[in-house]
Automatic annotation (TrEMBL):
Example of a GO cellular component annotation carried by this entry: mitochondrion
GO MF: GTP binding; GTPase activity
Organism: Asterophora parasitica
Superkingdom classification of source: Eukaryota
Ranges where the G domain occurs: 285-356
Name the record gives this protein: tRNA modification GTPase TrmE
Keyword Isomerase recorded: no
BP-aspect Gene Ontology terms: tRNA methylation; tRNA wobble uridine modification
Length: 519
């Protein structure tokens, strides 16, 4: 080997030259170094097979239906090696009249099959269905295989255990299928959030709002706002590049300012929506029910309900009254805070107690009056809804009460008897209509351009940022046009974070972490 190296060196070197002064030394030295290293290094054992890391195992699998006894369970596999899973575990009969084998599936066609152990084909795990979705025409934009099984716990467990034995597969993380759909361009962030909300929808209002987001309607509205800002930015950038010369007509900067003002007004209108979208998607605060029954309730008891298509968290609080009981006073203070922070407050009073005794000294046929206890006066506002209970204990005053309610509280008050059930249907119907009126949640409002755009606090934060940057642009003097352009760029950037049109790595985890495994 050394003789060979000397021979090669003599070929390259000329009289008077050293190895390092040779003009081809840069190419020669690495070649010689490799030869020397090979010649003088002791023989190495071949590298052992290392277990592939999670990053290397790009094919994921998971149960995509809720666990439990049901008709069908779906196991989803997605990734570059999805077809290897089919070939290892799916056995279909050869289709008559074709040359296609059982291990070469036809895309988008569900097939009856046997699911077998990949290490022992004779061991059948289930008799089910399988379908192959060829990327990019799949949910994740990758190759996807779905196994439709009987949903017995033992069957599901055996199939997942068999998948775990395949060295190129790994179990999916929460939300990873949807994340791949996002990264593949199949969905934007608002559609991702809409899909999650659609899965979790429990009321009709939630379903409608989530469906609009999932099908891309919300994205289109955000994109329209962002496109408007980019249009303003294009005008301002043109001024920076060309100035007020022959190529740029006069008034371009004023047009950009006018468009920016209209966009700012539109965004502020969405922000001043009384949190309609967030309330529909998830009741984040309580609707507080206040009862003056002495001492019966000391802590806040909560119950979730669907009223008028809204997810309502009803909180039954301690009665508001003067008391020397330390524990009860703590409950009363909690009740006051619950009322003050609630989206809707419903004051429940005993009708017999609320009716004042008539004064017969001056009028032989006096009309009774309804009185709100003084302990509640500071909590009653024009928006407070009033419910009078125990109407069965004041049967002689029902007609009088109805007229009093209409004249004093309008349509935002009702009488019921929870003991007999009288009036409860009317109250629930009226309460639902009051909620829809308060937050503009009628069917036509949820199916039009007036539907709430903001459904998450994340959206609100980015829109508020966009407003600040638009206002900063409007406050920028014309001579500082470069700074104004930067403010517009920030505003477009803020709106882009809503739908994920920019680099939003910092918020991806927050969006996907609450998804169920297999979605």
């Amino acid at each position: 080997m050394l003789n060979s190296l000397r021979a090669n060196a003599r070929v390259f070197l000329k009289p008077g030259h050293t190895l390092f002064s040779h003009p081809h030394a840069r190419r020669l030295i690495p070649v010689l170094t490799r030869h020397v290293r090979t010649a003088w290094t002791a023989p190495q054992a071949p590298p052992r097979n290392l277990v592939a890391s999670d990053a290397q195992r790009r094919t994921i699998y998971a149960l995509s239906t809720p666990p439990g006894k049901a008709g069908v369970a779906v196991v989803r596999i997605s990734g570059p090696d999805a077809l290897k899973v089919w070939k290892a575990m799916v056995r279909t009969s050869k289709r008559p009249g074709t040359a296609q084998t059982a291990t070469t599936p036809e895309p988008w066609k569900i097939e009856r099959c046997r699911i077998v152990q990949p290490t022992n084909e004779s061991e059948q795990l289930d008799d089910g269905l399988a379908v192959y979705f060829r990327g990019p025409k799949s949910f994740t934009t990758e190759d996807v295989v779905e196994l439709h099984l009987h949903s017995g716990r033992a069957i599901i467990s055996s199939v997942l255990h068999a998948l775990a034995k395949l060295p190129f597969c790994r179990a999916a993380e929460a939300g990873e299928f949807t994340q791949r759909a996002f990264l593949g361009g199949r969905m934007d962030l608002t559609q991702v959030e809409g899909l999650k909300d659609l899965i979790n929808a429990e009321t009709e209002g939630q379903r409608r709002i989530a469906m609009m987001a999932a099908r891309g309607s919300v994205r289109a509205r955000f994109d329209e706002l962002r496109a408007g800002i980019i249009g303003c930015l294009a005008n301002v950038e043109a001024l920076i590049d060309f100035g007020e010369g022959e190529d740029i007509e006069e008034g371009v900067y004023e047009q950009a300012r006018s468009r920016a003002q209209n966009l700012l007004t539109a965004i502020q209108k969405h922000l001043n929506d009384n949190r309609r979208g967030e309330i529909i998607r998830s009741a984040q605060r309580e609707a507080a029910i206040v009862t003056p029954i002495p001492g019966t309730t000391r802590d806040i008891l909560e119950l979730s309900m669907d009223i008028g298509g809204l997810p309502i968290i009803v909180a039954d609080t301690a009665g508001l009254r003067k008391t020397d009981d330390l524990v009860e006073s703590i409950g009363i203070e909690r009740a006051r805070k619950a009322v003050q922070s609630a989206d809707i407050s419903l004051c429940v009073l005993s009708l017999p107690d609320a009716l004042t005794a008539p004064d017969t000294t001056t009028n032989p046929n006096p009309t009774p009056k309804l009185a709100i206890p003084s302990t509640l006066s500071d909590l009653i506002t024009p928006d407070t809804l009033i419910l009078f209970n125990k109407s069965d204990l004041a049967p002689n005053h029902n007609h009088t009460v109805d007229s009093l309610l209409t004249s004093t509280y309008g349509s935002a008050s009702w009488t019921v008897s929870l003991g007999t059930g009288a009036g409860t249907s009317k109250f629930l119907r009226g309460f639902g209509e009051a909620l829809q009126d308060r937050f503009n949640l009628h069917d036509d409002a949820l199916s039009s351009e007036d539907a709430p755009l903001i459904t998450r606090e994340r959206h609100r934060v980015h829109l508020e940022s966009a407003c600040r940057f638009l206002q900063a642009f409007l406050d920028t003097a014309p001579e500082d046009v470069v700074l104004g352009a930067e403010e517009l760029r920030y505003a477009a950037h803020a709106l882009g974070k809503v739908s994920g049109l920019i680099d939003v790595e910092d918020i991806l985890d927050a969006v996907f972490k609450d998804f169920c495994i297999g979605k």
